Amino acid sequence: MYDEKAWYQSRTVWGGLIAVLAAVAGAFGFSIGGEDQAALVEAVAAVAGAAGGIVAIWGRVKATKSIT
Fold first, then answer.
1. According to the model, what pLDDT value does residue 12 have?
2. pTM of structure
3. Percent residues over pLDDT 70 in the chain
4. Taking the CB of residue 60, how many other CB atoms lie within 10 A of it?
5. Torsion of the alpha carbons at 41, 44, 50 and 55, rounded to the nearest 10
6. Are 22 and 38 in contact (CB under 8 A)?
7. Above 80 in pLDDT, residue 62?
8. What is the rounded distance in angstroms from the CA atom of residue 24 to the CA atom of residue 13?
9. How far is CA 41 from the centre of its chain?
10. CB 41 within 8 A of CB 11
């Protein structure tokens, strides 16, 4: 693994977070199935990737120094 990415771009991280949230929700009587968890991971990964792109563009627009 030589490529790097931000934590929020990792499907593994989001999958783990959603699995924990599903377990907590189960303790309160809510049921989130495996297919629903997989769909949530895909949706969250897409949103997180888009958010990362927006933050990168916003950072470049707000930058006070040029890139050389």
1. 84
2. 0.57
3. 97
4. 9
5. -120
6. no
7. yes
8. 17
9. 8
10. yes
